[in-house]
Specification:
The protein has 411 residues and is α/β, with parallel strands linked by helices. Helix 10 packs parallel to helix 12. The longest helix is centred in the N-terminal third of the chain and has 17 residues.
Length: 411
Amino acid sequence: MKHIEKKFVPAGIAMMISLCMAASAAAVKKIPASKGIEEASAETELFEDGLKVTSVTLRYTKKIQADSVTAGDYRIDGRVITGVSVSGKNVTITLDCSNKLLAEPDWNSMDDLPYETKMTVTQTGEISSLDSKILFTGASSIVLPKFPQPKIVERFTELTTMDNSANMRLRYDIFMPDKYAAGWNYPLVIFVPDAHVNTNSTKAVLLQGQGATVWTTDQEQSKHKCIVVAVQYTLSNEQEFGPLITDEGSMTPGLSAIKFLIDELCDNYRIDRTRIYGVGQAQGANAIMTLSENYPALFAATMLVAPQKAVADPTKLAGQKIWLQVCSSDAVAYSRANLLTDAWENAGAKVSYGMWRAGDDAAASEAAAAGMITEKSPINCGVFEGGNHPYTWTRAYEIEAVRDWIFRQHR
């Protein structure tokens, strides 16, 4: 039989260890995270596919032991946690912000705003205080407060105009360039979004992506100083006056109100009327096309992103300067692009074409667009091979060559 050596601890010492362990266990308090977190805050950024939370910071009532925290101690539905860090009482949770719209072709319904509006953070693990006297226990959820707006959105001022002919009040956000000065007339970029922001929620047109804000970055303004106006056709407008655009591409009260707004802006601001640029996506692209058809001298150039509906007579646009961008897997917009370009070429217009893969990096888009521009056609049609409807406008505005082309056009 094998002899096993046993090490005995004197009874007194054993009793002391036992008492110390009991005292230590009794000293550790378990507190639900919902009571242990005294503040929750979020950092946001405006991405090509809309406003997203980039990180969440939870401030606990006690300093936190760093090695007691892992990414697996938290859950945020619909988001991927990429890491956590600890600084004193604060635990900061960082989130993946990659473009999801290439994989997710559409929002669930028109009631879903295409940007983040709320977030619930759930602590699922146990977090220890630095002195190990408190365990903040999991299975507790914290609803974050209202998200802060990115600085680029704060550059816009929200206003309304009243088109008395239709008795319609139209909401818009306007960006004014730095050092707006006498003796200089500025180009105007007028942006009309897709129907997902036909909502009464303020600033929605600025938070859904970069269709309005891309023109206001410091880089862009250093090259192309301009006034930018983003139109928001609200849910109230839609309920009272009907859709902004129609299937057959006719003028609507909403489109008349946009034309009224452009005229009013030209009367009230120092705008170069030979350099008004119309930019729109989906609903907005059709809105800009219909305005161009009815007022052919209005825009110096237009950028049409994923239009899906008709215009009454596309041949009337054949003399315009247009950049049309679609995805080939957006069946409706791709089909519409083919119909439009056929009509324009049959009317005698020169059209340049380019195709590159959805998901390619920005450099590939730049190279493809630059190649098209060298052909010096007044109308250009760029296609992302693959993709889907909303993905189109998460990529179209990032192409610097296209933005530069727009600003080189004069009426």
